[in-house]
Write a structure and sequence with these properties.
386 residues, alpha+beta, five-stranded antiparallel beta sheet, 14 strands, disordered N terminus
Length: 386
């Protein structure tokens, strides 16, 4: 059914106040009408209230793993005996965790107007509780997809500067080389020899860098061993010893990463809100496509993340809120369902949830003395009949 927005003046004076309603006190006979458009409010006066609906939210934690090959990976086996070093850069994605939760929000299709019957001689008034239930004002779109599927990684994960990963590789990129030039000058039988020393710098080869890094790793391990056995014969405090060992270990790992490479993992929780529709056949909702190589993608049959709802059979199915006007104040009887979140038909999360849309909306008799209606859940708290 198409929904309409109530005009600003009516909404400010009536709807937004009653969205925070914790109890409604009514005495006398009333008439309740369902409002589906602004034109229905013309010439009428009364109190508006709005029933809530349930939003199911699927939270999916996605992990992005990036592997960067070390600049000395080709020498990992020869110099360090490492056979499982990262040999080339790679990127992959995985789903680490998933969960399903619910929130309530005002239902734009369930707005009701309470009017006093013309023949009634009694007062009708409304009181507001001191501690009203919290209401969610933000609206979630019915059709939800990832923002910017094509460039979703840009906003979710941090960019990595590869040049700054392997600092030890560029600590000593060059070395000084001294060349001696001998110049001889002959004058008759006299030979004058002049020696000229030329200084220059040349870059280390990868083989030399690998050998140097391996030597430094072994030297650091030797220094660690000497500290542990007390070779310096110095009574270091516990804090000083831990500091030195930690600094040495940090340097060792930095040199070792030149061979093994670096793996960086980042996680991001992506939330997908779904507004269940009681009239939908099958109760299957496609959320998004997911690929282990590219992350979030367009939805396809083999890569989709889905939310399946199974309704319980013993739910009450009475009441007719399509009648306009209804007899009295409309309230909500919730329904329950089993929700299952899956990827490639493998269950990620599941649970039993209360969904207001799967229940029933009923109306009280037009005559009563007191009613307390919780607009956070749409449920009755107390009713006093005449």
């Amino acid at each position: 059914m198409k929904s309409y927005r109530i005009g600003l003046s009516v909404k400010q004076a009536l709807i937004w106040c009653l969205l925070m309603l914790s109890s409604t006190f009514i005495s006398a006979q009333v008439k309740v009408s369902r409002i589906t458009g602004e034109d229905q409010l013309a010439g009428k006066s009364g109190i508006l209230y709005q029933l809530p609906r349930t939003v199911l939210i699927a939270d999916v934690e996605m992990v992005k793993t990036r592997q960067f090959a070390g600049p000395l990976a080709a020498y990992a086996s020869e110099y360090m005996g490492i056979d499982d070093a990262i040999m080339k850069d790679a990127e992959s994605y995985a789903i680490r965790h998933a969960a399903i939760r619910t929130i309530s929000e005002p239902d734009p299709d369930q707005v009701y107007l309470i009017e006093r019957e013309d023949k009634s001689q009694e007062e009708i008034w409304v009181s507001f509780g001191k501690e009203p239930p919290m209401m969610i004002m933000e609206k979630f779109p019915k059709a939800m997809g990832p923002k910017g599927i094509a460039d979703w990684n840009e906003g979710l994960f941090m960019a990595t500067d590869r040049s700054g990963l392997f600092r030890k590789y560029t600590d000593s990129p060059t070395r000084e080389v001294a060349d001696t030039i001998i110049r001889k000058v002959s004058v008759d039988t006299l030979v004058i020899e002049e020696r000229i020393v030329m200084h220059s710098r040349e870059e280390y080869s990868d083989v030399e860098k690998a050998q140097d890094a391996a030597d430094k790793i072994r030297q650091i391990e030797h220094d660690q061993y000497n500290l542990l056995i007390g070779y310096p014969e110095t009574a270091y405090s516990k804090e000083a010893l831990e500091f030195m060992l930690n600094r040495l270990e940090k340097q060792r790992l930095e040199y070792l990463q030149l061979f093994t490479g670096i793996t960086i993992k980042e996680s991001q929780v992506v939330s997908f809100p779904i507004i269940p529709d009681a009239e939908k056949e099958g109760q299957e909702y496609e959320l998004v496509g997911f690929s282990k190589t590219t992350g979030i993608t367009e939805i396809e049959s083999q890569n989709r993340i889905m939310l399946r709802l199974t309704l319980e059979e013993n739910m009450i199915k009475t009441g007719n809120t399509g009648i306009n006007p209804v007899s009295g104040v409309v309230y909500q009887v919730p329904g329950y369902c089993r929700a299952e979140l899956s990827y490639q038909d493998k269950e990620l999360a599941a649970g039993r949830f209360e969904v207001l849309q799967f229940g029933s909306r009923m109306s009280l008799p037009a005559t009563f003395k007191r009613i307390e209606l919780d607009l956070h859940s749409g449920a009755l708290r107390n009713v006093v009949m005449e």
